[in-house]
Amino acid sequence: MTAIMERIVNAGGSAYRIEMGEEDLSGVYPGMKRFTVQISSEDSILGIMRTNSCEYSPLIPIHARDVAEETVTRWERDLLRDPGSFVSSLPPIPRTKTSGRENSAVIIQGSPRPTGNCAILASWAADAAREAGAETTVLFPHDLDIHSCIGCYQCYNTGTCIFQDDMTEVIDAVSRCRLVIVCSPVYTNTVPAGLKALMDRFQAFHAERTLGGQAGRGTGLLLAVAGRTGTENFRCVKAVAGAFFSIVGITPVSPILVDGMDRIFDLRSIAGLREQVRTRVGDSLVRD
Ligand SMILES: Cc1cc2nc3c(=O)[nH]c(=O)nc-3n(C[C@H](O)[C@H](O)[C@H](O)COP(=O)(O)O)c2cc1C
User: Fold this and answer.
1) Is any atom of ligand 1 closer than 6 Å to the C-beta of 191?
2) Any domain includes 99
3) Single pTM value for the model
C-alpha cells in the first residue's frame, strides 16, 4: 500500500494516528484502486475504512480518493470532539478468513425442477462422490434465499457481502470443498436465473480469496442438459460455468453435456451415462 496521508491527533490524553493509503488492485479486479483509512493508538488498530473506485457508478460523480480524504477529515474532527464515543462508534475491523480444502463435494442442482433431468444427474453425482469417500452436499438454489448481487463492490473493501442470506452457508461449503459440481439445464441459451444469482454472489468470495492472497484449489465439473439437439446449445452455459469456476479459483475438468433432452425426455434411458458421471466424479475427486 502506498501511504498518502498521515495525521497525529492528540485527544483525551491519548495520541491517535490516522493514516490513508492507496492500493492498485488491478491484478484482482481490472482498473480497481482501493483507499484505506486506518486509525490506531499505541500500535493497536482501532478502526479501518476502505473504499474502492468500482463502488461509484457513472451517474454518481464521486471519487473513492475524495471519500477517503473526507473520512480522514471527519475522523480527526470527531476524535477531537469526543474521543470515547468516536472510538466506540468505529465499525468492526474486517478479518481475513482462511480455509483449507476438505475431502468434500458440493453439488449445485441448478434446475428449478426438483424432479427433472438435472436432479437425476445431481443424485448420480452425489452417489458417486459418497462412494468415493467425499462428504457430499447437494444445494438447490431455487429453494434458497439468495439476494441478487447489486454490484456495490463493498466486498472488495470488507471481504464479505452486505447481504446476510443463505449464501453465507453456500460460500462456506464451496470454499472448503475439493470438488464443485454444477448441474444446469440450458435456459434461453444460458443457466437458470436462480443459479446465475448464486454464481454472481461468489464475487464476494473472489474478493475474500484474492485480497487474502489465497491461491485457488479444487476442481469444477459441469453437468448440463439441453432440450435442443446440438453441442452449440451449451456454448453460453460452458462460458458461464467457466467464469464461475475461475472466480471460485478452481480448475475445470471436461464437462458432461447431454443434448436433445426434449426428444429423449428421461436421461436414465441413455446407455452408459450414469457410469460416465460416476467415473468423471471419482476421477475429479482424486485430481487435486
Ligand atoms: C425457460 C426455459 C428455457 C429453455 N431454453 C432452452 C434453450 O435455450 N436451449 C435448449 O436447448 N433448451 C432449452 N430449454 C429446455 C431445457 O434445457 C430442457 O428441457 C432440460 O432438459 C430441462 O432440464 P431439467 O429437466 O433438469 O429441468 C429451456 C427450458 C425452459 C423451461
Assistant:
1) no
2) no
3) 0.91
